Amino acid sequence: MNKQFHNSFKLNGKSFSEVLTLLHFSKSISEEVYTFLKKWFDETEFVEVKTSGSTGKPKTIQLKKEFMKNSALATGAFFNLKENITALLCMSPNYIAGKMMLVRALELGWQLDVIEPTSNPLNYLNKTYDFSAMVPLQLHNSLNEVYKIKKLIVGGGVVSNELLSKIQNIETEVFATYGMTETITHIAVKQLNKLRYSKLVSESHYQVLPNINISQDSRGCLVIDAPEITSEKIITNDLVELISENEFKWLGRFDSIINSGGVKLIPEQIEEKLSSIISERFFVTGFQDAVLGEKLVLIVEGVKNKAILNKVKTLKTLSKFEKPKEIYFLNSFIETPTKKINRPKTAGLLNIN
Predict the structure, then answer these.
(1) Which fold has domain 257-348?
(2) Quick one: 278 exposed, middle or buried, by C-beta within 10 A (0-12, 13-18, 19+)?
(3) Strand ranges, E, within the chain
(4) Matching CATH topology for 10-253 and 257-348?
(5) pLDDT tens digits, 55-86
(6) pTM score, two decimals?
(7) What are the pLDDT digits (tens) for 15-33?
(8) Class for domain 10-253, per CATH?
(9) Core vs surface per residue 56-93: b (16+ CB within 10 A) or e
(10) Cα-flanking dihedrals φ and ψ of residue 338, to 5°?
């Protein structure tokens, strides 16, 4: 079998001269890593990947290995991550974010350490890394240890205002990512701290990676033209404001818009305002209403909290249309396999509609 990875690539501190040796060693790390690498080095042109299920039913799609390699190269170029850098994989290799950390390391010649994906991955590590990827929960639980990572990308969920405020004074450079399984993880990133010229985080926009073209459709949703990572244009359901030919501001999901008495409400924008006063997990959604068609409701994880009720009622940044008509509390939310909130199923627990 021909060698099909970068000469400088290391996995958990070990170098390899051939694929078979690498595959044998990967079994000692985890079955998930071994399964992916075995598929990566076989003769097929595709890798089958599960979507997260956060915006619809989870499904399995095929991604070209050539496109995955191109995506890895684009990330390396954007962040100036060259061979021999140290990187940490602390996410599941079962999903695209974990798979792409392996591909980047293989293609770019990184020294990659793989650890079990947990909610506090840095707790017992005594090593520093140039690059890693996390979900917001992992970053939140790693604030005292995150100095061990020089550059960190965060995806798989919205970074709350509370978490944003906590990362402003850390040394690590933190970036939010925009993307989906179909775009082979991120096609754009937004810096969340250490911004030049003291630019506010709210004024920081997503910047696309190399060889990505963006536009809008008639709904105002993002259209992605990226011939090096996907064969067809991707028409998203993400409402955006185009700032320039390579920058955009994400506004929310077109398919989550709530039409309440003829007023169109974007849940994500309302949630951003509410995150300044609610530290618990929460989301807003629309429930059927005989008068309004849909009424805006707020669902909070945890026991009923009168302080939250009062804060929401008096929050001045909310317009009168953005004030929830009802507030519900649930002991625990239902999650997707990638630990995102499954909004439809969680809202269904209330059994109101």
Answers:
(1) GMP Synthetase; Chain A, domain 3 (3.30.300)
(2) buried
(3) 10-11, 14-15, 46-50, 60-64, 86-89, 111-114, 129-134, 149-154, 173-180, 185-191, 206-208, 213-216, 221-225, 234-244, 247-253, 258-260, 263-265, 282-289, 293-301, 326-330
(4) no
(5) 556 678 899 999 999 999 999 999 999 999 99
(6) 0.84
(7) 999 999 999 999 999 999 9
(8) alpha beta
(9) eeeeeeebebebbbbbbbbbbebbebeeebbbbbbbbb
(10) -100, 20
The rounded Cα 323 to chain-centroid distance in angstroms is 28
d(CA 230, CA 68): 9
Q: What stretches of 45-86 show up as alpha helix (H) in DSSP? A: 65-79
Q: Taking the domains of the chain in order of start, what are their residue ranges?
A: 10-253, 257-348
Tokens of 300: 């909070």
User: Please, which residues bridge with residue 62 across strands?
Assistant: 48
Residue 170 exposed, middle or buried by CB count within 10 Å (0-12, 13-18, 19+)? middle
